Amino acid sequence: MRLVFVLAGLIFAVLVFAAACGDDDAGGDAAPAESQKFFDCAEAFPGSAPDASAFPAEVTDGSGRSVAIDAAPQAIASLSAGHTEILYAIGAGDAMTAVDNTSDCPAATSSLEHIDAFSPSVESIVALEADVVVLFFDPGDLVQSLDDLGVTVLMMPSPSTIAGVYEQIEILGDATGHAAEADALITSMRAAVVTITTDVEEFDAPTFFHEVDNTYYTAGPGSFIADLYGQLGAENIAESTGQAFPQMSAEAIIAADPQVIILADEDAGESPETVAARPGWGVIAAVLDGRVHVVSPDIISRPGPRLVEALETLAGYLYPELPE
C-alpha cells in the first residue's frame, strides 16, 4: 500500500508515503460515473516557456525559508509526487529532469531519472545537476547540506488543507517562471471545488471512516485527507482523536457506526467483502447499506491538481443523492 506525503511525524510518514504508489486503475470501486479527471495522468502536458523576466527572484518556500533563484530553472528535480504533478500542471514539465520513485503521474515521468526520496544521499542529488530541487521533508539535515554545496532547494512540507495546496502551487509558479499558469490553475481549481462543495450542501452529511491501512490507521483532524472530507461536510468518526493519523480500534469503529466507509488500502487486499467479513463489522451501517467503497490512495493523498478528482469521487460516495 502506498501514499505519498509526510502528514504527521516521520514514522507515520513512511507508512503514508508507502501507500501512494498504488495503481490508479486498480480494481474495486470505480469512481462515480460523473467524475471527471481534472488532471489526467495520461495527458502529455507539454511545457511552456518560463517567464525569464521574472528572474532573478526570491521566493519563500513552504517551510518559510527565503530562496534566491538567479534564472528560470532549466533542470528541476522533484522528490515529491504531489509536487511533481503540480509542476507539470503549471507548464514546467519541459524542465523536469528527475523525480522520486513514487512519481508516476503524468506518464512523462516514466522517462525521467527516479531516486529514493526517503533515503536520498547528498551525492545523488548533487549528481542530478538540477537548478532547483523540491523536497517534502528533510532527513538528516539534507537541506542544510545541499545549501552548503550551493544547491537551490525548495522545502515544501505536505500541506494539510486545500488552501495550503493553492499556496504551494503559487510558490512553485513563482520559483519556476510559471506564475501566470499557476494562477490560472488555482483559479480553475477553486471554481471546480466551489461547484462540488456547493452541490452537496442541500443533503444531510453522513458520518464516515477513512481507512488508510488494515490496522485501522485513519485520517484525522489536521490531515489533508480529512480536509477533503471536511470541505464536503462529512462527519469524521476520528475527529475526537485530535490526531492527524490516529490508529483506531475495531471496537471504536464499530461503536461509532459510520454510515460510509472509504478504503484506501485495496492493494493490501481490502475490499467491501473483506470489511463485511471482519468480526463484528456486519452491524455497521455502512456495511448493512452497501456503502463501503474503494478509492485510489494516489488521488486522495497527493495534495495537488488531482484533489478536484478526489473531491468529486468522495462526493459521489458520500452523497449518492447527487444527480448524475
Alpha-carbon Rg, integer: 20 Å
Structurally, the number of domains stands at 2
Ends apart, CA distance between termini: 31 Å
**Which range best describes the helical content: under 10%, 10-25%, 25-40%, 40-55%, 55-70% or over 70%?**
25-40%
Fill in the CATH topology of the largest domain: Rossmann fold
For this structure, what is the CATH class of the largest domain?
A: Alpha Beta
**Protein structure class:** alpha/beta
Find the count of extended strands (DSSP E, 2+ residues).
11
What is the overall silhouette? elongated
Q: What ranges have pLDDT less than 50 throughout 5 or more consecutive residues?
A: 1-28, 30-35
In N-to-C order, the SSE pattern is HEEEHEEHEHEHHEHEHEHHEHH
Strand content: 5-15%
Helical run tally: 12
What's the CATH H-level homologous superfamily of the largest domain?
Nitrogenase molybdenum iron protein domain
Strand order of the largest sheet: 5-4-3-6-7
Mean pLDDT: 90
The biggest sheet amounts to: 5 strands, parallel
Which CATH architecture of the largest domain is right?
3-Layer(aba) Sandwich
